[in-house]
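Lab meeting, item 3. Inverse folding demo.
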């Protein structure tokens, strides 16, 4: 059962950075200060899936000394999509009007956060994109680049949308956008969640903006991505199109 470390509701805060974690102990004490350095007025929500390495407990300790940090503990690992939906619901239950998806492993550079929040003044959804001019990846081998490009091209073609980086996980939403998408009806729990939520935003007619980012491979910890997870996401694309 999920629980939050602080009963006080952060009324009046406008931006919430949602960071799902599972065994990110090496990164958690670094990523939170890095995010808050870029956005001193924002709040951070760690959504921890009962990490065996103590990630959630470490985040709790940091939250004791900073009211901008919150921790949502979940009973176990149920997939990235369900973790984000839990975080989004947590945000919607409070007064946040900008909610951002963000990785714990520094693949997403915190320096892009202020620009994303500025763009959310004018757009419903902002996608941190590797596929537009100025975007790209760093420390990726040719095989990984090819697989990622093919996945995005395949998803874009099957679903018939113009968003070039459907698979990316650095995305910002206005509060009203998440309400319009109706996140309670999202079905994908794994990697395909990123595709589904952008597809649903396009179907809803929301204004989507792609912002160029450089995606850097993680330096610490172990990636959760696998060929099995990738294949599952590509199959989910077909299911979304049929529905």
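The presenter then showed the designed sequence:
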């Amino acid at each position: 059962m999920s629980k939050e470390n602080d009963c006080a509701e952060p009324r009046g805060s406008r931006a919430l950075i949602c960071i799902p974690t599972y065994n990110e102990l090496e990164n958690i004490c670094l990523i939170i200060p890095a995010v808050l350095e870029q956005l001193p007025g924002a709040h951070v929500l760690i959504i921890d899936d009962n990490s065996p390495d103590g990630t959630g407990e470490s985040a709790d300790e940091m939250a004791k000394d900073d009211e901008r940090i919150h921790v949502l503990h979940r009973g176990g690992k149920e997939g990235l999509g369900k973790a984000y939906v839990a975080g989004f619901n947590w945000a919607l239950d409070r007064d946040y009007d900008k909610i951002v998806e963000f990785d714990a492993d520094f693949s997403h550079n915190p320096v892009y956060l202020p620009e994303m929040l500025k763009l959310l003044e004018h757009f419903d959804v902002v996608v941190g994109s590797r596929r537009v001019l100025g975007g790209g990846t760093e420390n990726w081998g040719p095989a990984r680049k090819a697989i990622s490009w093919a996945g995005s091209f395949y998803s874009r073609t099957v679903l018939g949308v113009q968003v070039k980086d459907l698979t990316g996980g650095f995305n910002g939403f206005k509060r009203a956008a998440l309400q319009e998408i109706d996140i309670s009806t999202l079905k994908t729990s794994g990697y395909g969640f990123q595709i589904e939520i952008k597809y649903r935003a396009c179907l809803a007619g929301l204004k989507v903006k792609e912002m160029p980012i450089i995606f850097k491979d993680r330096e610490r910890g172990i990636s959760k991505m696998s060929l099995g997870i990738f294949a599952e996401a590509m199959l989910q694309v077909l299911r979304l199109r049929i529905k």
